[in-house]
Amino acid sequence: MSARVERIAALVPRVMWDDDLLMRLVAVFDDLLDGVATPIEELDLLAHPALAPDAMVDWLCTWLGWDLPAGWPSPDAKRRLLRDAGELLTYRGTERGIRQLIELLGGDEVESVEIVDPGFVVLGWTPPAEMSRRVEVVVNGPIGEKWSAEDLARLERLVKGDLLAGSPTSVRFPGPSTEEPEAR
């Protein structure tokens, strides 16, 4: 047997290692196994947000329920989204989850996120207009000025997709906040 111990060859009993024909036959299967085993061994790298190729990052985002078009947002923002996916999915649809989603995607262009939610859900009954559940999301910061209308509409669709289905929702991007930040 050659000095290089192959995967399948290592399973052959030592007394058979001197059989040249057997070892060449086993080497063929080792070569076939390499073509399959290498991708399987690297599977954890494909699911790691920092190491996965961009196409895999896009697929992982879709698999987790964020249908993001290729090229939007930036690959770095998508990687941040995947890195924090556990927490984002835990709080999906809540104030905390919506705020975190917007801040992750908007980055430095988001100063604050205000969410006005009446705090109740009515199923099987149509409430009077004054009691309707209308969720308002206000995103302050230069995002409204720096992002294109198309990108803002994409972010709005993501936010609405994370809220309770059928909830009337408005998302506004009024620009930078004019209020002084509170001292902490």
Give a summary of the structure in a few sentences:
This protein is mainly α and 184 residues long.
Largest sheet properties:
3 strands, mixed
Order of adjacent strands in the largest pleated sheet: 1-2-3
Radius of gyration: 26 Å
What's the shape?
elongated
Distance between the termini: 71 Å
Number of helices: 8
Mean pLDDT: 80
Quaternary structure? single chain
What level of helicity do the residues show? 40-55%
Please indicate the percent range of residues in DSSP E strands (runs of 2 or more): 5-15%
Which stretches are poorly predicted, pLDDT < 50 over at least 5 residues?
A: 1-5
Question: How many strands in all?
Answer: 3
- The arrangement of helices and strands along the chain is HHHHHHEEHHE
Structural class: mainly alpha
Keywords:
184 residues; mainly alpha; 3-stranded mixed beta sheet; 3 strands; 44% helix; elongated
3D structure, described in words:
The N terminus is likely disordered. Among the domains are: about 35 residues, no CATH class; about 70 residues, no CATH class. α3 packs across α4 and α4 packs antiparallel against α6. The protein has about 180 residues and is mostly helical. Helices cover about 45% and strands about 10% of the residues. The termini are far apart.
